[in-house]
Amino acid sequence: MMRKFDARGKNAVFTTLVYGLLGVTLILILLPLLYVLISSFSSKHEIVTRGFFLIPHEWVIDAYGYLLSNENFKTAFSNSVVITVVGTLINIVFTSLMAYGLSKTWLKGRRTLNFIVLFTMLFSGGMIPTYLVVRELHLLDSYWSLFLVGAIAPFNLIVMRSFFQNIPPELEEAAKMDGCSELRLFWTIVIPLSMPAIATFTLFYAVHNWNTYFLAILYINDSTKWPLQVFLRQMLIVSESSMENQAGSFEFGPAVKMAAVILTALPLLIVYPFMQKYFNKGMLLGSVKG
């Protein structure tokens, strides 16, 4: 009985420590986010004079009103939507098609192609050679420079290939006996069975495209084509006086910057809960077979 009591006591202490550590971690993560959210509903004067606070004296939405009426912000937001939707569609189509082909053992040169994919995951051509290729293809200041450079992520391709390999070959054989072509088999049988994996990598690619920053700075020189992240960089890094010359008077200063951070993160926060069940299932299914 004493041993059972000691074991239960140790388990209770361990559980308490784990929950305590998780609670502290949660507070450290949520506190900055909460401060950003609260600051976006505060006045510029209160942010400057009070410093850190979690409850403002006065709740205002002037910063959001300013951003939603700012043409530069609306243009950047629409640019990010276009980049995310079109880019994610290209990513998922190219990745799924190539992964399906590489999952077939009868494909000639399959080992060589798999090695090339793995090699590109470990080693890249580098920023300057990639830029030179994009320039020679006349893709600068075009969204195609963003779409094509990262059209296929090697890691996502390898995991999706493993998922396709887990599909029972009897289904494909039965479909082919009924006269189903390879392409029709892929779209009508393989894709519906692979929705958890496709939803998972759709989310991965969507997050990547929505957060496009470095590639946009590298390849997009036209400020009217900048995505939201680059516009946000201008607000957070460039001095307020410089921003006044470039994008109008930022009357509300810090509150506008905080509101921009919230509006930038909001779309992904809205989408993720609807895809969470597919995300969890897809991450497990794709890792069963190598």
From TrEMBL:
<keyword id="KW-0813">Transport</keyword>
<feature type="transmembrane region" description="Helical">
    <location>
        <begin position="112"/>
        <end position="132"/>
    </location>
</feature>
<feature type="transmembrane region" description="Helical">
    <location>
        <begin position="185"/>
        <end position="207"/>
    </location>
</feature>
<feature type="transmembrane region" description="Helical">
    <location>
        <begin position="12"/>
        <end position="38"/>
    </location>
</feature>
<feature type="transmembrane region" description="Helical">
    <location>
        <begin position="144"/>
        <end position="164"/>
    </location>
</feature>
<dbReference type="Pfam" id="PF00528">
    <property type="entry name" value="BPD_transp_1"/>
</dbReference>
<dbReference type="InterPro" id="IPR035906">
    <property type="entry name" value="MetI-like_sf"/>
</dbReference>
<comment type="similarity">
    <text>Belongs to the binding-protein-dependent transport system permease family.</text>
</comment>
<feature type="transmembrane region" description="Helical">
    <location>
        <begin position="255"/>
        <end position="275"/>
    </location>
</feature>
<keyword id="KW-1133">Transmembrane helix</keyword>
<dbReference type="InterPro" id="IPR000515">
    <property type="entry name" value="MetI-like"/>
</dbReference>
<feature type="domain" description="ABC transmembrane type-1">
    <location>
        <begin position="77"/>
        <end position="275"/>
    </location>
</feature>
<keyword id="KW-0812">Transmembrane</keyword>
<keyword id="KW-0472">Membrane</keyword>
<protein>
    <submittedName>
        <fullName>Aldouronate transport system permease protein</fullName>
    </submittedName>
</protein>
<keyword id="KW-1003">Cell membrane</keyword>
<feature type="transmembrane region" description="Helical">
    <location>
        <begin position="76"/>
        <end position="100"/>
    </location>
</feature>
